[in-house]
């Protein structure tokens, strides 16, 4: 039987789990065989097994831990998936399922001949008679599923501090360099020269604080000639608050940090950020790693009165959650499984997930080990109401709250009596959606629930609470409604007595002092598993002593203390390897979260152990390890091939640079690219901590919202993880999407605009060498933290001048537009077309900003519709992003869901609930093509009734009466973005949604005009007119006729500086260049 058969048996256990009990030294005696049975086995079965199986499953090799030359292995103990043969039951034997090709086709190359399959089936039906094993052969069978060879694997041995290799070279600067140099010498390679000071400074800034150095900071370091200048810079950056922000990002990737639930609803988690801030503080304070681990796994047991330790338990809360899952049992098991998996990934550097269904196929991790690890975590109970505060703060709050409670007791009691029947009805309806057994648990008194029942009932009850929140006072009627309103007003009078709520977060505690049972189930049995450590690491049973304070099992604290034992084989190794990875791109163990046999062995095993021991012996200080590596000669090497005399040989011997004969260039990650762009434009906001903000803003990336199912396109493009699973290393892809985002993305175009404006501020319009050199020095300093080289300066000065020479000479803004006569009025109108190169008039002055009501009027003629659902825009103050505030007046196109040629108002702002929404308000007035119209919309922002918005439309070449339509709206405020210009015939920063036709007589008033006040009857501007662009004066067509408002500009908003165009091109190019996005 070929070895592939046994691989199938191993694979089959992915579907059918089988627990393999330890093999006792004394085997049960084989049953006595009849002469006929013995003859059948020796004549037909043993030769078949020897022919097909024993090469890979015999004394020399035991694939999948299965031997088929011994009865004790094949029938009694089995391999990774359990016994392959069940005597008397061929249909229950994994061996038969495999050779029949019922589940897996084995052997995969060709099915066994039918006669051999028949022989195996007949033999198993007979009871699988097999003579007793030879004692000498039996002695070669390993005792139990974990062998001495398994235990001897390098990662499972306690790290031992190796002697630092001696060398005659003066190259090493730190002990790690001696280990690196020895390996290089053995490979007949040599290290590269040190990088120059500018390169080192940039590398250090990005590696330590994640942000680019300013030009002044680089110059300061370059000019510092003190012998310890580099060491001083390292210490300065390690002491920076930005260090914690950057290093925390690596940890947040590992622990699958996100701020939404995942699944379909993907609800926002408003307090998740507290864990993020805890990690940042821990890194900045250099919290010892053992304490860092203790707090995250068992902070509530380890330091129950420490707010930081309580916050740290959020580590166990970052898994996904499906808010409307009725199968509560399955969902809770998925949650606990995920906690188990990520604990193994993060702290042990072992993939535990495979052992959930069967013994791990490649690593000595038993299925029982998986559930034993889970048993430490199983008592976890979600606690979102626990105050994150000191005992003194809690006591003071409770004291003040008691006063408020006493004063408002009668009022609240009456309110509760009114609400109760309605809330009970909602709760009952939601409870009845769950399976019957869950309903029983939910209705049980808490004191009578078993631990698992309480966990399941409270998980289900989250959905009940959500349903009860839907109660609205508007559902109350008559006198009850009036009384309820009166009571609420009475309650408000005591608001000054009610203390401000203490902060809460996503934390955990144990469900009780008694742990729920953890059951290992397979098709043979179901049995309870107690907590114990990985068998391959330690066979002694843990001594679990519950803490004296609080209702808790002490299990998680026991696990955390075991993980942080100084002699633990994995914990310190895994963490120092992660720190190495942060600075060198790849860990000494390349597979940073897989130290098992499928992972890569360490490139420098003695160095890894030396670092692990040094880490523990020096108080588990993470900053100390960072500092050691940053000060090393290995880290300071140049990444350039020209800086290594033996580069050609090195590229042949070690093309992946695992021996570190040079430094490797690295692309900045998504966070660093975004933050660097904002730093270059001067927009980056660097204050520490607090709730998260939109990625469209200017806050540092670590403080932006991480929404699993709606990741910002910039982060998606540049390989940021979504927080759905532990990520030990970010992918680094190169895609067209990245180039498109950087070249054409709206956010990027706005950044280039900001950078250009900042660069040209205070700069004369002169094209002299001196002036243009000044511009380029300023621009290069902002983006690349240096001055341009002579060749760069000459080429760019030439580009700027040639671009300016090609621009229309002496043309006024109005001359850049086409003008035509508006039919029906005979007046001059702008003649616009939809081409992306067609200029659009705009003003970046704050027209209508902050006004609660306004009226927009214009005379228009539309020549065409878009073939899709795009909108022909008359006027707007919006960038077409449905999450950014703004408004737009326009006409729909061919495939619009609001029907073609419909006059509409698009609004983006806050509704009554405070949520930002995008809303289309249709007038249902349809404009004919090639027909001149007067159109207007009057709007009162805080009036959502039909009187709030009124549309007007009148054909100018017909006697037909004015068409009037009223419409409700939901957006009530927050509609104006001060950075978004008002554009005529288009939208800010957009090449689409453009008007194709004539526009004239644009008038905007700061009030809701009535019909008699409209310009169709009132030709002169009224008292509330803000701007009146009539386009009639040949000398100043784009001027406001009131003399009070802004003049329209043609081109890019804010680009009135003569040098803006070509300098903007240069700015945008620099933000895209490799020198900006990569670090040497």
Automatic annotation (TrEMBL):
Domain DUF1549 residue range list: 175-379
Range of residues in the leader sequence: 1-24
An annotated Gene Ontology molecular function: heme binding
Coiled-coil residue windows: none
Residue ranges of domain DUF1553 in the record: 555-797
Span of domain Cytochrome C Planctomycete-type: 53-110
Domain of life, source organism: Bacteria
Matches recorded under InterPro entries: ConA-like_dom_sf, Cyt_c-like_dom_sf, Cyt_c_Planctomycete-type, DUF1549, DUF1553
UniProt keyword Signal, yes or no: yes
Keywords on record: Signal
Protein name: Cytochrome c domain-containing protein
Source organism: Rubinisphaera brasiliensis (strain ATCC 49424 / DSM 5305 / JCM 21570 / IAM 15109 / NBRC 103401 / IFAM 1448) (Planctomyces brasiliensis)
């Amino acid at each position: 039987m070929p070895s592939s058969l046994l691989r199938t048996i191993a694979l089959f256990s992915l579907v059918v789990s089988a627990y393999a009990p330890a093999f006792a030294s004394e085997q049960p005696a084989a049953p006595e065989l009849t002469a006929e049975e013995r003859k059948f086995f020796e004549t037909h079965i043993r030769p078949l097994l020897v022919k097909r199986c024993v090469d890979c499953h015999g004394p020399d090799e035991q694939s999948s831990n299965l031997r088929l030359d011994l009865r004790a292995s094949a029938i009694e103990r089995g391999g990774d998936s359990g016994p392959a043969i069940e005597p008397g039951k061929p249909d229950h034997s994994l061996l038969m399922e495999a050779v029949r090709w019922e589940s897996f086709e084995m052997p995969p190359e060709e099915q066994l001949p039918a006669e051999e399959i028949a022989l195996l089936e007949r033999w198993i039906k007979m009871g699988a008679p097999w003579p007793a094993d030879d004692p000498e052969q039996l002695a070669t069978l390993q005792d139990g599923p974990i062998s001495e060879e398994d235990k001897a694997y390098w990662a499972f041995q306690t790290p031992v501090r190796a002697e630092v290799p001696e060398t005659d070279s003066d190259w090493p600067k730190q002990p790690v360099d001696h280990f690196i140099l020895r390996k290089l010498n053995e490979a007949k390679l040599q290290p590269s020269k040190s990088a120059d000071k500018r390169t080192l400074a940039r590398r250090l800034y990005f590696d330590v604080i994640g942000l680019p150095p300013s030009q002044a900071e680089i110059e300061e370091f370059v000019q510092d000639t003190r012998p310890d200048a580099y060491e001083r810079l390292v210490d300065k950056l390690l002491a920076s608050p930005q260090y914690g922000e950057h290093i925390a990002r690596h940890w947040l990737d590992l622990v699958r940090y996100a701020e939404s639930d995942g699944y379909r609803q993907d609800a926002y988690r408003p307090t998740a950020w507290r864990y993020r801030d805890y990690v940042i503080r821990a890194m900045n304070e250099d919290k010892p790693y053992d304490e860092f681990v203790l707090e995250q796994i068992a902070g509530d047991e380890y330091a129950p009165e420490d707010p930081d330790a309580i916050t740290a338990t959020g580590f166990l809360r970052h898994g996904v959650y499906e808010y409307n899952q009725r199968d509560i049992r399955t969902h809770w098991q998925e949650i606990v499984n995920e906690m188990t998996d990520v604990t193994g990934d993060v702290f042990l550097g072992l993939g535990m997930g495979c052992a959930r269904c069967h013994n791990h196929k490649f690593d000595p991790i038993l299925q029982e080990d998986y559930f034993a690890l889970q048993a430490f975590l199983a008592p976890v109970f979600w606690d979102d109401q626990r105050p994150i505060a000191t005992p003194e703060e809690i006591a003071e709050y409770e004291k003040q709250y008691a006063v408020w409670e006493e004063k408002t007791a009668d009022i609240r009691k009456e309110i509760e009596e009114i609400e109760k029947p309605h809330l009970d009805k909602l709760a009952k309806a939601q409870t009845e959606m769950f399976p019957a057994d869950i309903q029983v648990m939910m209705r049980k008194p808490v004191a009578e629930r078993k631990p698992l029942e309480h966990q399941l009932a409270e998980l289900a009850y989250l959905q009940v609470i959500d349903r009860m929140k839907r109660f609205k006072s508007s559902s109350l009627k008559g006198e009850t409604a009036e009384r309820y309103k009166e009571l609420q007003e009475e309650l408000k009078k005591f608001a000054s007595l009610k203390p401000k709520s203490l902060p809460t977060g996503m934390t955990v505690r144990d469900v009780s002092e008694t742990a729920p049972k953890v059951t290992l189930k397979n098709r043979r049995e179901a049995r309870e598993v107690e907590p114990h450590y990985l068998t391959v690491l330690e066979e002694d049973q843990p001594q679990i002593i519950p803490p004296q304070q609080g209702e808790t099992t002490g299990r998680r604290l026991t696990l955390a203390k075991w993980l942080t034992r100084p002699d633990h084989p994995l914990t310190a190794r895994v963490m120092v390897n992660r720190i190495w990875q942060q600075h060198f791109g790849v860990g000494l163990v390349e597979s940073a979260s897989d130290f098992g046999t499928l992972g890569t062995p360490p490139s420098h095993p003695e160095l890894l152990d030396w670092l692990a021991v040094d880490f523990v012996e020096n108080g588990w200080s993470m900053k100390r390890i960072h500092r050691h590596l940053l000060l090393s000669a290995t880290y300071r090497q140049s990444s350039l091939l020209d800086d290594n005399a033996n580069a050609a040989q090195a590229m042949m011997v070690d093309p992946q640079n695992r021996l570190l004969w040079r430094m490797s260039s690295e692309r900045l990650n998504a966070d660093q690219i975004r933050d660097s762009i904002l730093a270059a434009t001067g927009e980056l906001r660097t204050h520490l901590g607090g709730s998260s903000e939109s990625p469209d803003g200017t806050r540092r990336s670590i403080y932006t919202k991480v929404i699993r199912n709606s990741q910002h396109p910039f982060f998606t493009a540049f390989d940021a993880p979504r927080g759905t699973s532990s990520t030990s290393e970010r992918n680094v892809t190169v895609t067209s999407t990245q180039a498109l985002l950087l070249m054409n993305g709206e956010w990027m175009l706005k950044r280039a605009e900001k950078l250009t404006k900042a660069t040209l501020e205070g700069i004369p319009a002169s094209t002299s060498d001196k002036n243009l050199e000044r511009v380029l020095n300023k621009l290069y300093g902002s983006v690349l933290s240096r001055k341009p080289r002579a060749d760069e300066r000459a080429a760019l000065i030439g580009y700027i001048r040639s671009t300016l020479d090609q621009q229309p000479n002496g043309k006024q803004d109005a001359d850049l537009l086409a003008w035509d006569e508006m039919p029906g009025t005979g007046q001059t109108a702008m003649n616009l077309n939809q081409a992306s190169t067609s200029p659009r008039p705009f003003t970046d002055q704050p027209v209508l900003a902050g006004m609660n009501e306004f009226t927009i009027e214009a005379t228009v003629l539309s020549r065409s519709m878009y073939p899709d659902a795009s909108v022909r825009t008359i006027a707007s103050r919006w960038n077409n992003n449905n999450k950014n505030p703004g408004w737009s007046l326009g006409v729909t196109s061919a495939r619009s869901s609001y029907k073609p040629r419909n006059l509409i108002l698009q609004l983006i702002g806050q509704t009554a609930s405070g949520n930002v929404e995008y809303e289309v308000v249709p007038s249902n007035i349809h404009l004919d093509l090639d027909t001149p119209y007067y159109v207007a919309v009057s709007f009162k922002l805080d009036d959502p009734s039909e009187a709030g918005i009124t549309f007007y439309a009148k054909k100018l070449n017909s006697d037909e009466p004015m068409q009037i339509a009223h419409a409700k709206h939901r957006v009530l405020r927050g509609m104006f973005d001060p950075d978004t210009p008002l554009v005529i015939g288009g939208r800010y920063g957009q090449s689409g949604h453009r008007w194709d036709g004539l526009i004239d007589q644009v008038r905007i008033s700061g009030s809701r005009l009535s019909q008699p006040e409209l310009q169709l009857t009132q030709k002169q501007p009224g008292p509330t007119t803000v701007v009146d662009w009539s386009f009639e004066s040949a000398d100043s067509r784009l001027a406001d006729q009131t003399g009070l408002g802004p003049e329209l500009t043609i081109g890019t908003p804010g680009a009135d500086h003569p040098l803006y165009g070509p300098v903007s091109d240069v700015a945008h190019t620099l933000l895209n260049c490799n020198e900006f996005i990569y670090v040497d």
